[in-house]
From TrEMBL:
Residues 471-480, 487-497 have a biased composition (Gly residues). Keywords: Repeat, WD repeat. PROSITE patterns: WD_REPEATS_2. The lineage of its organism: Eukaryota, Metazoa, Ecdysozoa, Arthropoda, Hexapoda. Residues 575-593 have a biased composition (Basic residues). Gene3D superfamilies: YVTN repeat-like/Quinoprotein amine dehydrogenase (2.130.10.10). This is WD repeat-containing protein 20. It comes from Eumeta variegata (Bagworm moth). Residues 404-427, 462-505, 565-593 are annotated as: Disordered. The keyword Repeat applies. WD repeats lie at residues 268-309. The keyword Chaperone does not apply.
Length: 600
């Protein structure tokens, strides 16, 4: 696949781009931003602009109408947060009548999420995280609900980097912080004011630990997840089934957990710097991450290994997202034959990514790339303490193990492990120990490896390397616990730090968790277009359009190509039906200031 190009200036901002299904066009009348925004202004504020979309169900007894505005959109910019009726590509945006407008003093909103479980035609719960660590729960429609969590910053004083409702739960949400900690809250409990929580160890594994509050009665947070080296948790994402949790951190690691049992089931490592974003494929078979190595990395949940990398961005990848409406499957009569003679449907996943280089890239992940022929040899440089899936404490697979199905640590579906092929010599690199009071080891390591150009775009400049490392610790077991109820479980004894990964963070390189560049398929984007003046910070796919946002606070809508009668859209991938309802009548809107004072 070649990168699509157009005539015109190299830095020209595109208003349309073409894919195999047709032309995507920018809808200038469907632009959402601050009401008083005029033209292009440079990006302001350190907090990235995030976008949340939700579809309201129809009111009881009301017949859905195709003209009804049933979507609500929320976005933040600087110290401001807006909620609008979202009209998609049907009608022009009306910026004069926000459903909710909040201007905060002393803090900035950084992330937010609608609760899809409790939503009604007249109510929706919106959870908001802030740059100073507080969390607010509001109802932008009813305006009667307003709760604060971590108000006095006794739980965590650092920026909330990602916040999401637990899938299927009406009252549990998860918040990640720049401190490298992730907290599970119950919105029905007190917000954590009065006294700082005291924790006790509940479960510990390789590179992470889970704690509960030591208290006579259940309180927030229900659980605290702590990751090695207190590395910033940049983002997390639940799988479509809600059973698994993928977490990416600034130390360059993707960790995938079974959420209820808190078991680590797989890992992947970046080539350079931290992972910044993560998403799941619509069927839950693949996890895609992007980060400071400018690459898009595809990790297979079933095989527990990196299966492909995408190379096309020229700066840090800020958002990755699958397009479930273009992801396709072959017709039954077109099913190809497997080696054992059984029919199998071919898949093609559409992936989107946006970056700080102001470019939108679209990728097609096809069957021939994601499922290459099985290799029969095991890498000669696997650490004795690592399995091919990157999870410590298990032995490398034998030559015949590539075709052996096994259960995952969390009791999931059987999967097949494909070991990596052996490579040649090794490159000796001396890694120093972390100094007291200094930066984590991975930071100095990043500086040491900056000259190796792992993300070099010229094929003849790709470098192969491996390291001979010593075995590193194991994983400690722990009891299972349900995380979807209304109260926390107990158990555990003291301890407040995560179990370290190893003294050598490079031990995953050369394994299935981070294969060398020539051992992994490298993809080029189907489309790569500059679509903004400022760095891009949001990307969402809907049935009739896609939404992007950039650092100057502008939220754009791109109309999809006209859908043919026998279009590629697969109805099986539609996870949430788009029911229609009448728009909620606007109440009197006025300028509101929500003050969350900074507590030193």
């Amino acid at each position: 696949m070649a990168v699509q190009t157009e005539s015109g200036g190299k830095d020209e901002v595109k208003t349309q781009f073409v894919t195999r299904e047709g032309a995507y066009r920018l809808m200038t009348l469907s632009e959402y931003s601050r009401p008083n925004r005029v033209g292009y202004t440079g990006g302001s504020g350190a907090s990235p602009v995030r976008v949340s979309l939700v579809t309201l169900p129809p009111a009881p007894g009301v017949t859905p109408s195709s003209d009804a505005a049933d979507d609500r959109i929320c976005f933040n910019h600087g110290k401001e947060l807006y909620v609008y009726v979202y009209r998609g590509v049907k009608k022009a945006a009306d910026l004069t009548k926000p459903v909710e407008k909040k201007i905060y003093k002393g803090t900035n909103p950084t992330c937010h999420d609608f609760n899809a479980v409790t939503i009604t035609s007249e109510s929706v719960s919106l959870i908001i995280g802030f740059s100073t660590g507080q969390i607010q729960l509001i109802d932008p429609i009813k305006k009667e609900l307003s709760k604060l969590y971590n108000e006095e910053r006794l739980i965590d004083k650092t920026r909330v980097t990602c916040i999401k409702w637990v899938p299927g739960s009406s009252n549990l949400f998860v918040a990640a912080h720049a401190s490298g900690q992730l907290y599970v809250y119950n919105e029905e409990l007190a917000g954590g004011a009065g006294a700082a929580p005291h924790y006790q160890l509940f479960k510990q594994g390789e590179g992470y630990s889970v704690h509960t509050c030591r208290a006579k009665s259940t309180r927030n947070p229900l659980y605290r997840w702590l990751f090695a080296d207190n590395s910033c948790v940049n983002e997390f994402a639940f799988s479509p089934c809600g059973a698994n949790l993928a977490v990416v951190t600034q130390d360059g690691l993707l960790r995938v957990f079974h959420y209820d049992t808190m078991e680590l089931v797989g890992r992947a490592r970046s080539y350079f710097g931290g992972f910044l974003c993560v998403c799941w494929s619509p069927d839950g078979k693949y996890v895609v991450v992007g980060g400071e190595d400018d690459l898009v990395t595809v990790w297979s949940f079933g095989e527990r290994r990196v299966v492909a990398r995408g190379q096309g961005h020229r700066s840090w990848v800020s958002v990755v997202a699958f397009d479930p409406y273009v992801t396709s499957f072959t017709d039954p009569e077109e099913k190809r034959e497997k080696r054992d003679g059984e029919p199998e449907a071919a898949h093609c996943y559409r992936l989107g990514s946006v970056s700080q280089d102001t470019q939108l890239c679209l990728w097609d992940l096809t069957e021939d790339v994601l499922r290459p022929p099985v290799r029969t040899r095991v890498s000669a440089h696997l650490s004795p303490a690592l399995s091919p899936n990157g999870v410590p404490g298990t032995k490398p697979l034998a030559r015949t193990a590539a075709k052996t199905a096994r259960k995952s640590d969390a009791g999931g579906d059987a999967s097949t492990i494909k070991p990596t092929k052996p490579t040649g010599g090794t490159l000796g690199i001396t890694v120093g120990k972390k100094e007291e009071g200094g930066a984590p080891l991975v930071n100095s390591l990043t500086q040491r490896l900056a000259g190796f150009s792992f993300g070099e775009r010229k094929p003849d400049h790709r470098r192969n390397f491996s390291l001979n490392v010593k075995p590193g610790g194991g994983a400690a077991g722990g009891g299972s616990v349900a995380l979807r109820g209304r109260s926390a479980g107990g158990g555990g004894s003291g301890g407040s730090t995560a179990s370290g990964d190893s003294s050598d963070p490079l031990r995953l390189i050369g394994t299935a968790a981070c294969p060398r560049f020539d051992e992994c398929p490298v993809l080029e984007p189907l489309v790569c277009k500059k679509i903004a003046h400022e760095r891009l910070t949001a990307l969402l796919f809907r049935a009739d359009y896609l939404v992007t946002a950039c650092a100057d606070g502008c939220v754009n809508t791109w109309a999809r190509p006209a859908r043919p009668h026998n279009g590629d859209v697969n109805p099986q991938t539609h996870t949430h039906p788009h029911s229609l309802s009448h728009p909620h009548p606007h109440a009197h809107h006025h300028r509101r200031f929500d003050r969350i004072d900074l507590v030193d």
